[in-house]
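Newbie here. two chains, one complex. Structure please?
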Amino acid sequence: MTQAQPAIRLTGLTKEFGAVTAVDHVDLEIAAGEFFSMLGPSGSGKTTVLRLIAGFEQPTGGVIELFGEDVTKRAPFDRDVNTVFQDYALFPHMSVLDNVAYGLRVRGLGKKERNERARRALASVRLEQMADRKPSQLSGGQRQRVALARATVVQPKVLLLDEPLGALDLKLREQMQVELKQIQRELGITFIFVTHDQEEALTLSDRIAVFNAGRIEQLGTPAELYERPVSRFVADFVGTSNLFDPEHSLALLEREGHHSLRPEKMTVSAEVQHGDGVRNAAGTVVEAIYLGSGVRLVVDLDAGPRVSVLEQNVRGRVHDDEHGDRVVVSWHDGDVVAVDGTAVGPQNPTPTASIGAMLPGTAG
Amino acid sequence: MRLSRPFRITLGVITTVILVVVYVPLLVVLVNSFSTSTSLTWPPPGFTLEWWGKAFQSAGALDAVGTSIVVALVATAVSLVLGTLISLALQRFEFFGREAISLLVILPIALPGIITGIALNNFFRTIMGVPLSIWTVVIAHATFCIVTVFNNVIARLRRLGLNLEEASADLGAGVWTTFRLVTFPQLRSALLAGGLLAFALSFDEIIVTTFTAGSGVTTLPIFILNNMFRPNQAPIVSVIAVVLVLVSIIPIYIAQRLSGEEQRR
């Protein structure tokens, strides 16, 4: 073998729930050691892909390979991947230590060794003093770290994380993002991270796949996705964008087709700016929103569309434009990105995880 | 919520009357078990512990208690196993006819006892050709005892969801290991509550028992019925009735406490 096997290879992966196609012929390769994110709105199929890789769902079609080995038909307990669940799924009747040691216990390790290894894993997430507590006695962030320790103690080849930070408040979330990245670097294993939070995905990932209606809309590094979105959907979902339809593109940008322009690439001033590739458009300020780190101006351009402009708060200079002020919006032609104008596809409802929901009385 | 004073008083009176109607007769039985009158005249002419002593020496009564306990224990054990299995099947798997089976499992508790009794009597004797015995009673009781176990377990399974089981499988545990280490510990209190109710149901059942018991099989309720109108036995029957009430109430009380605690968790 000359080239390293990808950690995960999905070929034509498809999952249908009745008439609903949750995952639609997804092809994907994830390299070993990569921090890979699957980003998308709810119902876009990202969680289903994760559950297919974990083995909780059986695909309707396609192949899942783990380091070159076909695991499509294997049960979850027969796959070298582990999952950190959205609600952590810690066993409530077991102590924190027993939770972490669980994977080693079912592999038949002796009590002494598994407890030792579990303690070491707990120490790596700085929770060794909590070993004897029950999960219910921990805070959300601590539970999250226990779930992480429990999944990593068995040394999986790939770690799947299903919106693991979704239940945490903002401060804790940012702190856990840093920790996740550190843990991933230390362990050197592949992380597949599912999130609907584009900022989280941009911060953490080596590469991101943006999901839309069961398909991968765009695959690339955070910078590629942000700077060169291929479609209106990606431009709009990853960060905020000013989107121009063909009519406005022609009028303002003198280009054919749909285009996207990021708010922070535009500036607002009193007069027309000059320079190579600089374009200007006059307009009226509709709204000025102070953000602390900057100001978001909403400007109605005379040529038609309403645009959002982000101005940085440099040296305390806060823009004093007010509602109704006449301004000139300027941008560099090179910052305009041509995008695919296909309308955003319909999103599927999230499939119910429990069959219980289909029992009489609870149907819905 | 605020209620007007007259309304509150009315509701209080209604509640009191209902509770009196339900529980005073039980108290009468309790008092009668200490009565010196053998024909249970009211008010009791005097009090004695004679009947309590006699009851605990009566071979027939002790025998009946023993039979009832055996029947209740075995019926409960059978219900626990079958009830858990059917709950798992209906909650964790999808198959044709699932809804129908779910209904069929619950139905026996709603069926009039006399129908179940006649039907099973017919089934055992005429169709299967099995002589009635203590085991036919056990089977008959299990048909409705399963329901209490089933209801408790399926409610718990539904609330648990699949998350913990998926986490267990994800960490490498097979189906049986997952059940043993994760699912079963989560079901324990539901099984205890369901089992206690099943035991209480079986222990004081009489209608189905009458139709399915072999000639030598006398459970406690049957013993009471048989001795109720026999001269000089009435006070002993009162003693047994009191014991029966206690034995039935205690498990139900514990079961209620258990499910209450679960809900508060």
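Moderator note: The longest helix of chain A spans residues 170-187. The CA atoms of residues 81 and 158 of chain A lie 5 Å apart. Thread marked as resolved.
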